Amino acid sequence: MSDSYEFLFKFLVIGSAGAGKSCILHQFIESKFKQDSNHTIGVEFGSKVVNVGGKAVKLQIWDTAGQERSLSLSLSLSLSLSLSLSLSLSLSLSLSLWETYNALTNWLTDARTLASPNIVIVLVGNKKDLEAEREVTFMEASRFAQENLMFLETSALTGENVEETFLKCARSILTKIESGELDPERMGSGIQYGDALRRMHRQEKLQPQASKPDCAC
Ligand code: GDP
Ligand code: MG
Question: Which SUPFAM superfamilies match (predicted)?
Answer without folding.
Answer: P-loop containing nucleoside triphosphate hydrolases (SSF52540)
